[in-house]
Amino acid sequence: MRKCGRKINQSDIEHLEKIINANLPDDHKNFLLQYNGGRPEPDAYPVKEHREKVLGIKEFYGIDHEITSWRLDWNYEVFKDRIPKFLLPIACDGFGDQICLVLANGKYPYGTVVFWDLFDETDHPTYDNVYKIADNFTGFLDCLCEYPKDDDE
After folding, report:
1. Which of 4, 5, 112, 147 is an S-S bond match for 62, by CB 3.0 to 4.6 Å?
2. How far is residue 8's CA from residue 10's CA, in Å, rounded to a whole number?
């Protein structure tokens, strides 16, 4: 992980959980305590149900990052009326698409990691542009891979 955020502690996480009015899954809490966001290497991941099949990640959001748009609380506020309820943006791809954690059981179980596609955004939040990536945050980290090489390379 490159460009990690400052070291945080459990009280920083508890403060965020109050802001978002939800509890983060333990595996994501552990990630925040270790890295507090950053740029992963490798930086691609498969999304079986999406037309692209393999997508990229630019940045994991953290707590109290020096760049405002890389903060979990800032992204929560920006996207809370645009994405389905109980999804928390935790990362982006550089094009406005969001990787989100599911924070309550519903269409997907608590802790699932999903992809929210900005290109297919509608006037009201819907799951029509949400695609499952992994059963949990650890599974998401485990599926990170290199982009497949083009046949032209």
Report:
1. 5
2. 7
Residues in CB range of 145: below 8 A, 6 or more apart: 42, 44, 45, 46, 54
How many angstroms separate the CA atoms of 37 and 101, rounded?
Answer: 14
12 — phi, psi (to 5°)? -65, -40
Three-class DSSP category at 148: coil
Residue 149 has pLDDT above 80, yes or no: no
Burial 102-121 (b: 16+ CB within 10 A, else e): bbeeeebeebbbbbbbeeeb
Instruction: Give the model's pLDDT for residue 152.
Output: 53
Q: Report the alpha-carbon distance of residue 15 to residue 19 in Å, rounded.
A: 7
Q: Could you give the CA distance from residue 126 to residue 18 in angstroms, rounded to a whole number?
A: 25
Under a CB-based contact definition with an 8 Å cutoff, are residues 18 and 10 in contact? no
Q: State the CB neighbour count (10 A cutoff) for residue 27.
A: 16
- Which pLDDT tens digit goes with each residue over 11-68? 999 999 999 999 999 999 999 999 999 999 999 999 988 888 888 999 999 999 888 9
